[in-house]
Amino acid sequence: QVQLVESGGGLVQPGGPLRLSCAASGFTFSSYAMSWYRQPPGKERELVATISTTGSSTYGVDSMKGRHTISRDNAKNTVYLQMTSLKPEDTAVYFCNIKRMGQEYWGQGTQVAVST
Question: What is the DSSP letter of 40?
Fold first, then answer.
């Protein structure tokens, strides 16, 4: 079955970097676009970034452009979210996502807290 396992979250000071990872299994990873979403406290889940199957094309929301980079390693079945210049408003649970055969799959999420 499809499994997505996020890791790399934690507490970071404003302006700091953090790299999130999502290890995928149970499907042909290289055949599907992958996305990162986040859910800030008390708010709805929102798209952060999407990457194409080969990694040649990416999309990122305007609020994070220039600060976050999505990438993937198809040999490792892993998608990454490199975050820089983190702000308190980036505090959220970050989720890995795949849409496959009409279904949507989520990992359990990894908590990112940006605070002094």
Answer: -
